Amino acid sequence: MSEKKIAIFGGTFDPPHLGHLILAEQIKNNFGLAEIIFMPAGSPPHKKDKKISSAQVRYEMLKLAVKDNPSFLLSDWEIKAKGYSYTAKTLSQFVPQIKAEKVFFIIGADSLANIFEWEKADFLLSEGKFIVFNRPGYNFKEILAKKRYQAYQQNIFTYHGLNIEISSSYIRNEFKKGNSIRYLTLSQIEKYIKKNNLYR
Ligand SMILES: Nc1ncnc2c1ncn2[C@@H]1O[C@H](COP(=O)(O)OP(=O)(O)OP(=O)(O)O)[C@@H](O)[C@H]1O
Ligand SMILES: O=C(O)c1ccc[n+]([C@@H]2O[C@H](COP(=O)([O-])O)[C@@H](O)[C@H]2O)c1
Description:
Rossmann fold; 6 strands; binds nicotinate mononucleotide; alpha/beta
């Protein structure tokens, strides 16, 4: 029997966009993952001073995002956990509960570039496995050539798929300006944003 591989895709998801879905699907295909667990951060540690939508709202949007893909699951674990959503906590407390031979974290190249600012980064990179998707403006080779990354190369799996320029901040800004956000996210999420009067 082949080993079951799954990944956790953590993020703020304010809002979830097509980039998140495209990269998750591409990674699922290319790494032979059985499932991807989308994990909205309850309290994102690096967005302490930023105005973000409530965890409940971000969770509901993500529910709409994953509902048509049976391989995309959703977890409220980081939302229910107390305090900041440190990935080190998710690795030590949530990952051991998962029934799979291999568990990866999915991040974008921008997150990889900042990972040494994360809580317990050395623990994360030595005990966790990261699948990293390219992001415009970030170069895998340049990031990984830095000395601090050298010891952890065996736990960092890069995947170069499509270059996707979409970001949640772009969507929020466009929407705020009164511009259409059609085709940047799913239509049901666009409807949700309008109905709940987000980002105005
Ligand atoms: N277009 C993209 N290409 C590659 N990685 C992405 C892309 N969008 C998001 N990610 C990755 O997905 C994870 C969650 O991202 P997040 O929910 O913060 O979206 P974002 O578009 O980066 O948001 P914001 O613009 O508000 O910073 C992060 O690890 C981020 O690097
Ligand atoms: O653990 C940390 O210190 C830490 C710092 C910044 C980001 N993260 C996690 O990285 C993921 C992407 O974060 P973000 O802010 O780009 O949406 C999300 O799961 C965050 O909880 C984690």
